[in-house]
Amino acid sequence: MTQKELDKLQEKALAQLKSGESLFGKEGAFAPMLQSFIEAALEAEMDEHLDTDERSKGNKRNGKGRKTIKSSAGSFEIETPQDRQSSFDPQLIKKRETVLADSLQDKIIGLYGLGMSLRDISAHISEMYDTELSHTVLSQITDRIIPEVKAWQSRPLEEVYCIVWLDAMHYKVREEGRVTHKALYNILGINREGYKQVLGCYVSESEGANFWLQVLSDMQNRGLQDILIACTDNLTGFKEAIESVYPKADVQSCIVHQIRNSLKYVASKDQKEFMRDLKQVYRADTKDLAELALQDLADKWEAKYPIVIQSWQNNWDKLTTYFQYTPPIRTLIYTTNAVEGYHRQLRKVTKTKGAFTSDMALLKLIYLATKNIEKKWTSPLQNWALTVQQLAIRYGDRLPLDLTRNHEK
Question: Where is the composition biased (Basic residues) (predicted)?
Answer without folding.
Answer: 58-69
